[in-house]
């Protein structure tokens, strides 16, 4: 039976915000501002995301006692705010208790912490390694009573695995499940989350509110896109993706909502009012993820501006567009560094791109430094043939110039290698790999082209750059080239990019065997060569700048292969 004194209407605000790892006072201030906003909108309760006060993921900061104490002080201070009679709060924070250090939430109302809940299922795969720093909660804890409504609060992975937390909470009398999450972006992730939650709704018969963090944290992008699935297994509300927002959703008991359907829960709760935002399509989502990741990496790490080498090629052009969209034209310096092999087309394309974007554009010829290196090494190299070594001196001269500009003006270098190149080592250590962050590190070459075409026709929400053709069509249409020797193209050294990308996706994302890849129609010699290049380039990738995670398996956090590795798939 329903409690006669319990309310029939509950207004739950979902705070989809962008915390900064380690900025406990800043995150607390952000939480207070969101709670005040929710109060103005008439909210009864504000649901924040996983480990919000610490920022997520805090990684080994959790091992520092001083960090844990600061987080708990902030949680207590925030709980004290609820003495004003405004909304109650559910907010994530690490807590050290006798049972261990836990990924936790506090539930506070009326000026007090009324309950704590600890994450039970600690993820330990891909980008997650929570078992290193947290202990699982000792047991499934029951619902909390919020002003007469029983709320279950599983934490992120608790609804992804097979621990039956949702079902147990339903059996313990929960009426609604509120889930704080730190779920990173990859392509198609929103649909995956929806399916996970629908599966749990089917199991427990309760509506589930899924609150997800927003913002960039090193390689990870948290895309928001918070939502709820009603007990009838339909989408109850959908918040926007890649945007900070506080949305108040209105929930009514079934008896108070005439004609409402509530599935397995005859006196359950139905969402009568909430946002229904459109989720971006694939290219837009990837572009906005890259833009958000670059913006947050630059701003959260305190860089005033960025610099990149603008070669006239597709990769540097899209990185320049991302930088202007993320930061504004005044915060990007683009530098063309021509040598004897730089074509007139590349000089024109780079200038046209910079002009279209409105950013500063400098030309710094590298003839003298490269010739100086060659002269210095003449005696040492006597009797050898010119080749890759001499080509790489051009790339390393450019890298040195960009780092000098960085040192002199405090600009972060944006490095511009795509995933296809990084996979097979088609990049120069201490040359074009120099930089602080790479917004396209997890995009294959053909995806870079797709995003460039998309951006020329669209301006994404929140972008600071201009509309129209910001990447000249000639850059998109011409054959890609590193221009390190006469008449060079990438296809002199690599398979055609559509072929290379498909093979790499099979090897990297899907861990497919050589025989299975050949069965897709690829030449066996090409597949084994690409596999070999992939393995021997591991040492380069270990020294590469961090970059935005876009795919299910990025280099670094997700794919961790040994550098010293003699395994090859013989088929």
TrEMBL record:
<keyword id="KW-0067">ATP-binding</keyword>
<feature type="active site" description="Nucleophile; for glutaminase activity">
    <location>
        <position position="156"/>
    </location>
</feature>
<feature type="binding site">
    <location>
        <begin position="309"/>
        <end position="316"/>
    </location>
    <ligand>
        <name>ATP</name>
    </ligand>
</feature>
<dbReference type="Pfam" id="PF02540">
    <property type="entry name" value="NAD_synthase"/>
</dbReference>
<feature type="binding site">
    <location>
        <position position="392"/>
    </location>
    <ligand>
        <name>deamido-NAD(+)</name>
    </ligand>
</feature>
<dbReference type="Pfam" id="PF00795">
    <property type="entry name" value="CN_hydrolase"/>
</dbReference>
<dbReference type="InterPro" id="IPR003694">
    <property type="entry name" value="NAD_synthase"/>
</dbReference>
<feature type="binding site">
    <location>
        <position position="183"/>
    </location>
    <ligand>
        <name>L-glutamine</name>
    </ligand>
</feature>
<feature type="binding site">
    <location>
        <position position="125"/>
    </location>
    <ligand>
        <name>L-glutamine</name>
    </ligand>
</feature>
<comment type="pathway">
    <text>Cofactor biosynthesis; NAD(+) biosynthesis; NAD(+) from deamido-NAD(+) (L-Gln route): step 1/1.</text>
</comment>
<dbReference type="GO" id="GO:0004359">
    <property type="term" value="F:glutaminase activity"/>
</dbReference>
<feature type="active site" description="Proton acceptor">
    <location>
        <position position="50"/>
    </location>
</feature>
<dbReference type="InterPro" id="IPR014445">
    <property type="entry name" value="Gln-dep_NAD_synthase"/>
</dbReference>
<feature type="active site" description="Proton acceptor; for glutaminase activity">
    <location>
        <position position="50"/>
    </location>
</feature>
<keyword id="KW-0436">Ligase</keyword>
<dbReference type="InterPro" id="IPR014729">
    <property type="entry name" value="Rossmann-like_a/b/a_fold"/>
</dbReference>
<dbReference type="GO" id="GO:0005737">
    <property type="term" value="C:cytoplasm"/>
</dbReference>
<feature type="domain" description="CN hydrolase">
    <location>
        <begin position="10"/>
        <end position="253"/>
    </location>
</feature>
<dbReference type="GO" id="GO:0003952">
    <property type="term" value="F:NAD+ synthase (glutamine-hydrolyzing) activity"/>
</dbReference>
<feature type="binding site">
    <location>
        <position position="416"/>
    </location>
    <ligand>
        <name>ATP</name>
    </ligand>
</feature>
<protein>
    <recommendedName>
        <fullName>Glutamine-dependent NAD(+) synthetase</fullName>
        <ecNumber>6.3.5.1</ecNumber>
    </recommendedName>
</protein>
<feature type="active site" description="For glutaminase activity">
    <location>
        <position position="119"/>
    </location>
</feature>
<feature type="binding site">
    <location>
        <position position="189"/>
    </location>
    <ligand>
        <name>L-glutamine</name>
    </ligand>
</feature>
<dbReference type="GO" id="GO:0000257">
    <property type="term" value="F:nitrilase activity"/>
</dbReference>
<comment type="similarity">
    <text>In the C-terminal section; belongs to the NAD synthetase family.</text>
</comment>
<dbReference type="GO" id="GO:0005524">
    <property type="term" value="F:ATP binding"/>
</dbReference>
<feature type="binding site">
    <location>
        <position position="540"/>
    </location>
    <ligand>
        <name>deamido-NAD(+)</name>
    </ligand>
</feature>
<keyword id="KW-0520">NAD</keyword>
<comment type="similarity">
    <text>Belongs to the NAD synthetase family.</text>
</comment>
<feature type="binding site">
    <location>
        <position position="421"/>
    </location>
    <ligand>
        <name>deamido-NAD(+)</name>
    </ligand>
</feature>
<dbReference type="GO" id="GO:0008795">
    <property type="term" value="F:NAD+ synthase activity"/>
</dbReference>
<dbReference type="InterPro" id="IPR036526">
    <property type="entry name" value="C-N_Hydrolase_sf"/>
</dbReference>
<dbReference type="InterPro" id="IPR022310">
    <property type="entry name" value="NAD/GMP_synthase"/>
</dbReference>
<dbReference type="InterPro" id="IPR000132">
    <property type="entry name" value="Nitrilase/CN_hydratase_CS"/>
</dbReference>
<dbReference type="GO" id="GO:0009435">
    <property type="term" value="P:NAD+ biosynthetic process"/>
</dbReference>
<comment type="function">
    <text>Catalyzes the ATP-dependent amidation of deamido-NAD to form NAD. Uses L-glutamine as a nitrogen source.</text>
</comment>
<dbReference type="InterPro" id="IPR003010">
    <property type="entry name" value="C-N_Hydrolase"/>
</dbReference>
<keyword id="KW-0547">Nucleotide-binding</keyword>
